[in-house]
Amino acid sequence: MTRSMRVLLVQDSTGHSTGYSVIARGLRDAGMEAVLGGALIPRAIARLAVDEAADAIGYRIMDASPAILVERLMEELAQVGLTGIPVVVGGIIPEEEVPRLEALGVAGIFQPGATLDSIATFFRDLAQRTPRQA
Question: pTM (2 decimals)?
Answer without folding.
Answer: 0.93
